[in-house]
Amino acid sequence: MTVRRAMMRIALLLAAGLVFLADCRSGSRPAQHPDSAATRGLDSAAAAVVGGPAGSYELLLPQRWAGHFRIDSLSTGERGRALPGALVVEYLPADSTIRPQALMALAVYDSATWREVRAEPGPPAGDSVATNGGRVYVIGLPQSNPFAANSPDAVVFQVLQLRREELPGLIRFR
Questions:
Q1: Of the candidates 105, 114, 110, which has an alpha carbon nearest to the alpha carbon of residue 73?
Q2: CB-hemisphere CA count at 13 Å for 172?
Q3: What are the extents of the domains in the chain?
Q4: Cα–Cα dist 155/157, whole Å
Q5: Rounded to two decimals, what is the model's pTM?
């Protein structure tokens, strides 16, 4: 990629980020569910609605993620003691030589197992964001931006990162 083309890409990404931030600050976007304080901050439409196993829930991904992610399942070893169907949403870098990085992971535990997992030493597996039918829905977020500072992918990844107040509004039960 030429330097000029790289600079154009950076300028476009920065402009898109500024437009997004200005739109968020203006408050012109309604919440997904205006009556729920937990969903304030979600974009007005989901970029994708992903159905959970057995149709028990839907995962509502923010509109700002459109075109920047893929969804994969976690292997048995990766999901640990979570129930089958754990998902990871990965950011797809503009630089295709860099491997995709997790924006979030969603795991579902039965409540007894979640209590045991929380009691284990070390950092928690994520934040419990919802409970339903004896199950606990846990979202794990990246601890830091994995891209080189000020790189185009670092800028976009920063804009895409979820805020804690968005987490409860990502799960909708059927």
A1: 105
A2: 15
A3: 3-173
A4: 6
A5: 0.72
